[in-house]
Amino acid sequence: MLALIVLAPLAGAIFNGLFFATGLSAKLTGTGRHTSDRIVGTVACAAVLVSALLSTRLFLDLLSQNPAGSEPITTELFTWMLSGTLNVSFEFLFDSLSAVMALVVTWVGFLIHVYSIGYMHHDRCYARYFTYLNIFVFFMLVLVLGNNFPMMFIGWEGVGLASYLLIGFWYEDSFRVYAGRKAFVVNRIGDFGFILGIFLIFTVFGSLNYQDVFSQLGDPAFVSGLSQSLITAMALLLFVGAVGKSAQFPLHVWLPDAMAGPTAVSALIHAATMVTAGVYMLSRCSPLFDLSPVALNVVLIVATFTAFFAATIAITQNDIKKVLAYSTVSQLGYMLMAAGAGAYVFSIFHLVTHAFFKALLFLGAGSVIHAMAGEQDIRKMGGLRGMIPVTAITFLVATLAISGFPLLSGFFSKDEILASLYSGGHTFFWAAGLLTAVLTAFYMTRLYVLTFEGAARMDYRTKSRVHESPAVMTVPLVILAVLSVFGGLLGVPGFMGESVGFHYTDLIKKFLSSSVVVHYGAEHAYSHYFGHWTLVGFSVLAAFTGIAGGILLYYRRQREPALIPCQAADAVRRGSFNKWYVDEIYDAVFVSPFNYISELCSDFDLSFIDRSLDGLSDFVRNLSGRLSALQTGLLRYYVAAMVGGVVVIIVLIFIYGSMGS
Amino acid sequence: MSLDNNILSLLIFFPLLGAVVLAVLPYFEKVSDYQLKAVAFVITLVEFLISLPLFFRFNGSLSTMQFEEKIPWLTDLGVSYHLGVDGLSLLLVLLTTFLFPITVLCSWNAIRGGWRAFLCLTLFLESALIGTFAALDMILFFIFWEAVLIPMYFIIGIWGSARRIYAAIKFFIYTALGSGLMLVAIIYMYYAHIDQFGFASMNLFDLQKTSLAFDGILSPQGLVFLAFFLAFAIKVPMFPFHTWLPDAHVEAPTPGSVILAGVLLKMGTYAVIRFLIPFFPEAIEAYTGVLIALSIIGIIYGAMVAFMQTDLKKLVAYSSVSHMGLIMLGVFIFNLHGVQGGVYQMIGHGLSTGALFILVGMIYERRHTKMISEFGGLAKIMPIYALFFMIAMLSSIGLPLLNGFIGEFLILLGVFAESYLYAALGATGLVLGAVYMLWAYQRVMFGPVVKKINTGLKDLNPREIALMIPLAIMIFLMGIYPQPFLSKMEPTITRMVDEAQQEAFRADSTVPEIQKNRP
Q1: d(CA B348, CA A362)
Q2: CB contacts, 8 Å: B387 with chain A
Q3: Residue A640 — very low, low, confident or very high, per pLDDT cuts 50/70/90?
Q4: Contact B409 A642 (CB under 8 A)
Q5: Which of residues 159-188 of B touch A (CB under 8 A)?
Q6: Hey, which of A173, A205, A265, A349 would disulfide with A261, CB 3.0 to 4.6 Å?
Q7: Would the CB atoms of B305 and A191 count as touching at under 8 Å?
Q8: Confidence class for position B517, pLDDT limits 50, 70, 90
């Protein structure tokens, strides 16, 4: 059953790809486009639904265990690579961590598949789209369900491929293709670190299977024999992979450009699932990371910087998807901050709630873009609330959730992260996280207000055609909105539950504790100044400050405020608007020199290596030319000469050989 | 006389016989070009079917030679007609028999005229290649090795494009220069063997036992090693002996390129594993650093030069330089994973690069140009073509679940065990490969259709699809389920690595251990 979860989307992809994307069915059976599109959509959705239902079934099995998740389900299909001591199998693992990931991937994936039926309705390459989407779900499930590092790597590279194909889905547009290629190459830089990390793990542990590796890590005698720098090296190499996939600074540059893909793809791949692979990886390897304080500090620093840095860019962007893209980068930083503080379970908790509200935001954005006939500039929107009410309300719910509005899902997960930062003694990072939370609430409010409130700023033609999306698109929005509201129930902190007599607290933490390292009590050992509720107070204050700021600045005026007190502030805003020129810097520091060196190599090859060896061969040719007049151009002389030479030599051997014996 | 005892001879002589039949057939009956092609195709296909039992009846638990045949030939000289395959050569023989029917199919429209000569030479080439991989006698090996040169030279020189003569002569002189040196070295070893053991033998296992004094590059072993190394390094080709390759590929007709990249280059890597490393333990030990450095330079340099190419075929040719560098890196590391990965990658590269050359040939036939700038937006006009190109490209850049990944993974894993630095440098090929391949793919396949002339291009016809499908299947099969292939080669390579380590252990007493780059 476990293997079926993975194979169902693959089967869907093969079926749709083989029969419909190639146009084979139209040729064979003469199916019309309308019918075949319906079959394609149904098959693709059904394939993911099968995975989702099976995942749920297995999840319930895990829950019924006592304690929940104590006996992971594994299955082995066949031996993949066997060479000497290397033994890698095609095997799957369903423990509490992969269960949570699989549920998010399949159910959110299913909703987005359904949404896509409406969103991609007009597209000529409907079948190709769903084929890619199913391929993506397949690889994502391999990533989260694989039971060894190479399996994770298969998924890792596979989702990268799916992402490349889907970003450049409309391949006639050169920019989209460029964005896809950029995503692939930047991810490969991360994968470079990841694969070296895999090699190091194999060298140290002699196995790549999770159980083998982590059980050895659980053995104090074994661990004490390992040098600290070796553990740190393993953790950091893996983290390089996570930096690439989860778009952390300095490899974040691909994600904003990845918005060139269809919006539903952005929701699934570039917000809810694929980009969280790095967070999954850190949680999966929590026994390893937990042994290296240095590595955790690096994670914390990179993640905090990314979270803050991306938020500063999001506040000035005018493209609705760009705002959401930088918001995603920032929120991924948030998740990794939790991991860096050793609170892996909360990184997964935030991953889950983020999947709900960020998928909702992107799908909402898709609905807006759909209504606006392709327009993505929020300066040309406004007043959409009355025209597309379902989209507006669900978008508002998601905005409040991500801002950390009390009792919505984002509130709980963010608060847990901030609390663990504070209680872990990372006061500076806690403060930075709080500041990021203010910015998050601010730019999300700005986005919502400029898009949906106030007067309509689009031209008359567009305005007259604005329409709410069909049910196939709005129903997923509503479902995700409900999840965004109530998702926080998965992780209500104990002290809050106690105060209102609510007993189902810390559900996700308890469940994940069977597979992820949890520091019990650590987050309750407040040796510092503030208590639980004070910290909550700070979080709430941050959310409200951001929201209030957004409303004050944008609700009335509906455009960028003109209050630029000094040149310095203006420079900062320009810097933010231009994404701090990171792309330009990379072009100057990496891309141009690479091109230049490649060109040098190419010239060197032609004018030096080839020339000098040509000289040598000219010499030989001239020599032989004089000897046997081969320059007549008659090719057979070459062969004759050579065969003759061989014969002469053999004869010589023969003579000498018989003389010798 | 059972088949098992003579299967290798059958594999060598059947295509040769076919070539003779094709050569004389027109004297008895009037045959059209189409019939000639069909006959040649059937011959190569039957040849492939004959080779299948070789694979399935090969005992994967043995490390020794199997299907051995030995007939005394020049007894006084110790030369014999001695054939056999082990886990190293088995897959190379099969790669050869697998690629030839595809090659004949892909030549369908790529060759203009002279069909009889072309097909005879192609069949002759197949015989020579199989002979090279199966020969266990140095003289026999040398004869086959040289025999490969002749048909290839004519295929480039006669059926190539504009600068074909230049390219053919360059190819010939480079490789003939190398093999001339090799012949001298073989003769030297032969006499050294007589001196040490008192009997004449060209058997490679006998020659392997010969020990030559080593004291720097000018000592007997140093010079003989150098001669062998040059012969093989030119063939592979390793940096800086690679410049004949792009020219040969650009000028060669499609089937020539497919065989050249698919099989011919592997003669070099095969010979390094079979001869160079077992024969000269001290020299290898002493120069490993240089050999590895050349391999790594090849990986990075080849990729960077490939990135700058404007001719699609040249780009694929330079990508071969990069890939062969990675294979050589694994081979020179000479541990189980490195060599096994190297051999796996030889097969993988043969399939993926063979496929890429065929695909380049297909648009060349349609447009008579290979310049990247002449294309753009082909994915829309030729979707099936774009799909196969994508599969071949992804295999070439080592995407997991395709064949390229297995080889790369094992090679780098093996290298990593010896040196973190070498592995890291070698792994840059992973990133660079994606850089130049995706860039090329984008310019050819994606974007708007700029050139009007391209709008009328026809997608692949059934023959073209039929010849791509086996390649695609093998690319997937070897990536998803590599075990049947890996397991057959493992005992042999384990034995070779063990022997080399023992040799190195002996050599250690005379040569100081080279510095390993472990931190």
Answers
A1: 41
A2: 22
A3: low
A4: no
A5: 165, 168-170, 172-174, 176-177, 180, 183, 187
A6: A265
A7: no
A8: very low
- Residues B39, B338: Cα–Cα separation, whole Å: 41
Cβ distance A617 to B170 less than 8 Å, yes or no, reads yes
CA distance A193 to chain B (A): 9
Q: What is the per-residue pLDDT for A328? A: 94
Give residue A352's identity as a one-letter amino acid code: V
B3-to-A483, B54, B68 alpha-carbon distances in Å:
69, 10, 12
Q: Is the pLDDT of residue A624 over 70?
A: no
Query: Which of B387, B416, B490 is nearest residue A203 as measured by Cβ atoms?
Result: B416
Tell me how many residue pairs between chain A and chain B have CB atoms under 8 A apart.
182
- 359-418 in B: which are within 8 Å (CB) of A? 377, 379-380, 383-384, 387, 394, 399-401, 406, 409-410, 412-413, 416-417
Most confident of the ranges A295-304, A648-657, B202-211: A295-304
pLDDT of A562 above 80: no
pLDDT cut 90: percent of chain A above it: 49
pLDDT of A604: 83
Q: How far is A434 from chain B (nearest CA, A)?
A: 37
Q: Which residue has the higher pLDDT, B455 or B346?
A: B346
- Number of Cβ within 10 Å of residue B431's Cβ equals 18
**Amino acid making up residue A13:** A
Residue A633 has pLDDT above 70, yes or no: no
Tokens encoding B403: 């064949």
**What average pLDDT does range A574-591 have in this prediction?**
86
Distance from CA of B486 to the nearest CA of A (A): 7
Q: With 80 as the cut, is the pLDDT of residue B360 above it?
A: yes
Interface of B with A in 136-155 (CB under 8 A): 139, 143, 146, 149-150, 153-154
Residue A90 pairs in a beta bridge with: A78
Q: Closest to A188 (Cβ–Cβ): which among B200, B308, B434?
A: B434
* Residue B310 per-residue DSSP state: S
Distance from CA of A22 to the nearest CA of B (A): 7
Taking the Cβ of residue B157 and every Cβ of chain A, the question of whether any pair is shorter than 8 Å is answered with yes
- The residue with greater pLDDT, A631 or B358, is B358
Task: At A270, list the tokens.
Answer: 């570039």
- Separation of alpha carbons A4 and B268, rounded Å: 45
Residues of A in contact with B153 (CB under 8 A): 635, 638-639
Contact B477, B404 (CB under 8 A): no
Nearest CB neighbour to A83, from listed B74, B170, B337 = B337
Residue B102 amino acid letter: I
Collapse the DSSP code of A520 into the 3-class scheme (helix H, G, I; strand E, B; otherwise coil) and give the result. coil
- Residue A659's pLDDT is what? 46
d(CA A189, CA A71): 36
Find the mean pLDDT for residues B348-354. Answer: 94
Question: Of B108, B103, B127, which is closest to residue B33 (Cα–Cα)?
Answer: B108
pLDDT digits (tens, 9 = 90+) for B372-382: 888 988 888 89
Token pair recorded at residue A23:
């146009």
pLDDT value at A209 more than 90: yes
Contact between chains at B308 and A599 (C-beta distance less than 8 A) = yes
Cα–Cα distance between A546 and A438 in angstroms, integer? Answer: 5
Q: Any idea what DSSP says for residue B87?
A: T
The mean predicted confidence, pLDDT, of chain A is 86
**In sequence order, which residues have a C-beta less than 8 Å from that of residue B299 and are 6 or more positions away?**
B322, B325, B326, B329, B425, B426, B428, B429, B432
pLDDT tops 80 at residue A470: yes
Region of poorest pLDDT, from A54-58, A70-74, A541-545, B513-517: B513-517
Residue B297: name the closest of B242, B353, B234 by CA.
Answer: B242
Binary contact (B77, A654; C-beta < 8 A): yes
Query: Is pLDDT at B450 greater than 90 in this prediction?
Result: no
